[in-house]
Amino acid sequence: xxxxxxxxxxxxAGDMSLLDYFRSSKTSSASLAKERLQIxxxxxxxxxxxxxxxxxxxxxxxxxxxxxxxxxxxxxxxxLEQSDNQETLELNIVLPDFRRV
Amino acid sequence: MARxxxxxxxxxxxxKTTTSAAISMGLAKKGHKTVVIDFDVGLRNLDLIMGxxxxxxxxxxxxxxxxxxxxxxxxxxxxxxxxSILPASQTRNKDALTQEGVGKILEELSKxxxxxxxxxxxxxxxxxxxxxxxxDDAFIVTNPEVSSVRDSDRILGxxxxxxxxxxKNDEPIKEYLILTRYAPERVKSGEMLSLDDVQxxxxxxxxxxxxxxxxxxxASNSGNPVILDEKSDAGxxxxxxxxxxxxxxxxxxxxxxxxxxxxxxxxxx
Lengths: 101, 269
Prior knowledge:
The structure holds 2 protein chains of 2 kinds.
Chain A: H1 2-24, H2 29-48, H3 54-68, E1 76-82, E2 87-93
Antiparallel strand pairs in A: 1-2
Chain B: E1 3-8, H1 16-29, E2 34-38, H2 46-50, H3 60-64, H4 70-73, E3 75-76, E4 83-86, H5 99-112, E5 115-119, H6 126-133, E6 137-142, H7 146-159, H8 164-167, E7 174-182, H9 184-188, H10 195-202, E8 205-211, H11 214-222, H12 233-245, H13 261-266
Parallel strand pairs in B: 1-5, 1-6, 2-4, 2-5, 6-7, 7-8
Antiparallel strand pairs in B: 3-4
Helix pairs in contact in B: 1-12
């Protein structure tokens, strides 16, 4: 009886400390929430001022390039920047390494 | 000239109507002639929270369509004679709300009232757009929860681009944060975004934090704005918010939470 009790309380204590360990670990659900939000909000802020045709423009340019070069769809970024009196369309495509082909 | 306040959030169910009812009552109780307008055409609820649902005869769409005068549509609040309510239409189509119509109503109300509180519907459709379009100040109601914070950020983007002040290049709308349903104990244990977490993302002027409170439901059950429940934590938090908006300095409360029973018994903290 006494032994069982000891074992029981030992296990109990072990469970508690294990739980506590997870609770106090850096990835509490709130910090995970904050991290996800920061990434998402930054992305949405940068895309909200873009003209609505930009995603389709990107898609069509990509299709044209893919006719000639085998590029991945995430190998391309498109950015429209506005300054005082001019707009710049910045297109960045990472081409595959030709030496290997 | 009246000051137009929009109470908005993007996300539904975070406490816009509760907040609109509370702050409009608070402003009126402080001696300012105030009108609160429900912009949620088709799903009106402000009348219910204010406890005047059985006295609605005409609504905002009747006024826009010229079927009633604004004075016929305004309902005097039962608790405070400086406060009036302009209900939304329950039956009409949302498209009946026009920019021109809303503009005229606000202009007319501006002659008579000191503060006009616009209770925005959820979402970013016409009703929400018109509730914020003419605003001078925006109260962003946010829960410490990912979807609410994200939607609030989206609304901030719209306030700075799709409002009259933005289009006319006037001084931008003043944006304030009201963080609602806050549970300090859950923040402490790492299961809820803290005020600082939310502010790291939104960085707004903080008007106040409303703690998660039973009194909010009790107040809506009886049709009395929670600010009238002076003993409740939520009621006091809203009183602080009204005072801060009017320029008083009051220390922030309800952020750290009270001492729990355990701590009271065993000390610490």
